[in-house]
Amino acid sequence: MTRIETGSCFCGSITAEMHGDPFWICSDHDDDCRKAIGSPLTVWVGYRPAQFRLLTGTPKTFSRTRGVLRTFCADCGTSIAYLDQGLPEELYVTIGFFDHPERFPPQAHAYWDMKLPWVEFRDDLPRVGRYSRRRDPAVGNPADR
Length: 145
Hints:
By secondary structure, the chain is mainly beta. It has a single domain (4-114), classed as Metal Binding Protein, Guanine Nucleotide Exchange Factor, Chain A, CATH 2.170.150.70. 5% of the residues lie in helices and 32% in strands. Strand 8 (79-84) and strand 9 form a beta hairpin. It is globular.
């Protein structure tokens, strides 16, 4: 039986299903995501785009960095997902969008070098200084675009 997870924005106008298991779950400490999400960090849950099925609503898109597209609810502001040309076939859904976020324990910390000094963790997860995923070198890093 295929795993199906559901998600919705705060006001409920955008809903989606994610089919199958995520391939990567990571606590992200970078400043770009911190600004976009409005939190000291977020947990990104990685799926293939084909695993994500929008049920209701139409997310608004925003891009501050060439090649990076963020989606969110235009009504309530809930962050939904993140796409990056440097990570083809990877869609990252933010933990706050899921109806059952407790089902997604992180596997690592990314951008550990940007972690706020007062945020502490007692876990033994890998701490990666920058990106935790292998990027397409032809596209480059978002910070360099």
